[in-house]
Every structure is written in structure tokens, then in C-alpha cells.
Amino acid sequence: MHIRWLLLFGGIFFSTQLVAQESVNWANFNYIKASNGWLTSENAAGLDKLSVDKISFIEATFNKQNGDFINYFQSDNSYSFGASTESFYRINKLVFYGQMQYTNFSGKNMGGSTLFNPGFSPFDIVEFADSTAGTKNMEQYYLTGALSIPVNNNLTLGLKTNYYTASYYKTKDLRHTNDIMNLETTLGLSYSFNSLVDVGMNYYFRKRTENTSYQSEGNTDQQFNSLISYGSFFGLQENFGNEGMTGSTDNNPLVDFIHGVSFQLELFAGNNFNIFNDLGFKWRNGYFGQKSSVDIQYTEHQANKISYKGVISLNRNRTLHQLSINFDYEDLINLEKSYSKSTDEGGNTTILYFGKNQVLDRVHSKASFLYSGNINVNDNNPEWLINAGISIWRRDQLSVTYPFYRRQDIQQFLATASLKKNIFSNSNMFSFTVGAQYGSGTGTDKEDGQFANALKNYATLDNILYREYEFLTTRRASGNAAFRYTKAFPANFKIYGGVGFDYTKAFDVSYSGNTYRKVALNIGYIF
Fold it and tell me: If 0-12 CB within 10 Å is exposed, 13-18 middle and 19+ buried, where does residue 153 land?
């Protein structure tokens, strides 16, 4: 095995033989993966729809980002690098899929949220002072394995597992260290009734844990404050100390369990036209804190999610037209637990819970429509690729610190278009891509009120609220361009290198800058 890999890599550097254009297999991994909706479904039984016997790639990437048109938890000066590999492989009637990826990120001047993904979390913990912003680093590891197993000519079983882990930490007080673990597993089946109808279904399970700890290593007299934001930067202020949601002696996990089921239906009208449908339902519940009699569980949350993915495909005259339709809807409720803590003369601590208060009702919804035109397809690689699409995203949330509340609604609209051209010359392929995006939004940044008269018992960070609202709703235009060169060698393998550039310009901004830039480099090996 090792000798075979050495020979393949050695051929990259020592082979001088030219390969005629007609003998080169220019199969495009992304085209093959996107050409059939089953291949990106959660149901791994659909892997048997793979149109080739095998295709794989290994890639290394480097990205540099600069600019001040960013959200409140992002960096205006960052870079990342990594490596990934992805593969489809058919052995007799078994089809395997695998993916591995490593990413290393470093960003300067980062403050705001101390959580890894505040959009997913049922609450946020936000630094009060801009002066505490510093460098944050992150390492991420992905591992995916999937397998489809045919039982007979009609029935296929599938198994898929995704494992993800990350370490995310800040190097300036108030410091935080986040360790994230995410495990997803799906079990599915598909059944082909005839040449006109295929159906499938799968069970889905996900467990996600984010352990966050806080510490201060500098001036111990300095006071650090955080906002426990129940939504829209409205909630309670907490001072850093030994205890609490940001306590130095506590290691509070944010835990999620998600169960779900999805149903697939593919309809055919001849060999050239088909419609793939995937409808999913998920049920989410979790908590923040410790599940024990001596440690505090601060919150509980639950959510219901509905998702739909549809792909309409027309394949004729070496041209594949696809219309992808996606819809997601999630309604999440977060509850704050009321408790008392007591310590007896022997030093034993007891936590007594006596109620729950709803502090967040949040609805996320998103719909997107994308047209892809793959023109003059040879060897599973289009000469032209045209993409055009729109997406609409909305967030509605009600945050409560009884008897006070804050409502917010945000809608965001994005339109995208891109054009890619592949030019073939003997054993060489030159790829040029240009694209553009326009976005804007609207909504209500905040509507504060109260259910009853009372003294103020909440805290806010309205300056960050206005910044996030502006980032999500202000008009912006983006442009991107990329170039990639691919060289084919004997033994049917190829190497490539590419460079890409993205530029974003925002209009009428008041709370942040108005530009953002990204340069991306990649080099890879296809086999």
C-alpha cells in the first residue's frame, strides 16, 4: 500500500509523458456529488446512486480575511489553514463514502460572544467591554464515514456517522476555553418500486456538547462583566468570580440531544427527468450546567425543526439543469431554572429547584432556490457552470426577564450568481470563475415592554444589538473571482492549484466598517 502511494506521488514530479485530451478522465468531484440528491442526503442508503466506481481528492487550503464589515463575534484580521480529503468508492455492490478535515483558525480583535456558535445556542454569553477583545484560536477536526449495503435488487440499507471535535480559546482576559464534541449517526433504507419511484427513510441522532470554562491570568483587581443574553442582547449581567455561568471554578457544559426522522421520494419521468424530495422532522432538547444534586443546571431548552430539500433535474444533450429548493423551520424555547443553594455544617452542598421561567421563544426560518446549469458535460465535468439563486432568512424572538421583555424580528434577502468556464488543452485544464452577490434586510431591531409594573431587573448591550442588526440588514454587494489550474498525469491522477478573491462592500453603515476581503489558496490531488 505504501509503495503504491509513493509511486503515485512520485509520478507528479518525475513524469514527463503528455496525456492526450481524449484519454484524460476529467471527472469533477463536486459535479458528481451534486448531480444526485441522494448523495448529499442524510440517508446513506442513497449512496448506491453513485454514477462512477471511485473518485477521491486530497486538498490543502489557506485563507486570509481582512475587513471591518463583520458581525459582533467575528475578527477583522484573521487567517486559517487546513487539509481535507473526501472519497466515493464502490467495491462490488457496496458503496463507501468518507471525509476527513482539519482546520486551524486564528483571529485578532475578537470579543463579543464567548460561545462557539451563538446562532445555534439557546442563549449567548457576551463580553460587556470592547477593551477585552483579543486573539482567539480554534482547531477543528471532522471525520465522516458512510456505507450503503444492498439487500436485494430493490432494497438497500445505509449507515452514516459524523464526528466533529474542536478547541476554541481566547488568549486575553477574560479568557475562555471551549471544547466541542459533536456526534451524528443515521440509519436508513431505500426501496426501488420500479423505474418510476424510489422511496427511503432514515433515523437521525445527534449529541453535541460544548464545555466552556473561564479564567483570568492578568490583573486580579480588574472586574470582568458578561451579559447572559436570552436573546437580542437582553438578559442579566454577571460578574466574573468563582461561581455562576462564567464562574472560574465551574465547567458548565451546553448539551444538546437531537432525534429525527426523514423521508425520501424520487420520481422519474423517463431517463432524463426526475424529482428528488427529502422531508425531515427533528426534535431537540438540552440543558446548560451540570445534572447533579450538588451542581447547578441553569437552563433547559427544547425545539422542533422541519426541513425540506427538493432537487428537480433535467439531463439531456450533455446538459444538466437542476433547481434546488431548500426550506428549514425551527421553533426553540429556552427555560431558566429557579433554584436555591445551601451548604450544611459539614460542607455538603444541596441544590433545590422550585420552578422554570421561559426566557426565550425563537423562530428561525430559511428558504432558498438555486438554479445550476451544467453545460457541455464530458467525463462528469461541465465546460460551463452557471449558478443563480436567492435565499430568504428570518428570525423572530421574544426574550423575557419577567416582567420585562424584548421582541425582535429580522428578515434578510440574498441573491447570488456565478459563472465558471473550464478550458481543456491536452493534459491541462484551466478554470475561471466569477460571481456576485447582493443582500439586504429589514425588520425591528428591538421592541421593549413589560407585562407588569416593576423595578428594572435586566441588563442590555444595545450597542452590540444595533451592530448585529446593521450587519444582517444593511445593503451589501460582493464580487468574487477565482482561477484554478489542473494538470493530468498517467495512471489517471491529477494535481491542481488555485487562487480566489472575494470583496464585500456595505452601504449606509454606522456601527462597523463597510468592507471585507478574503484571499483563498488551495492545492490538491485528484485520484
Answer: exposed
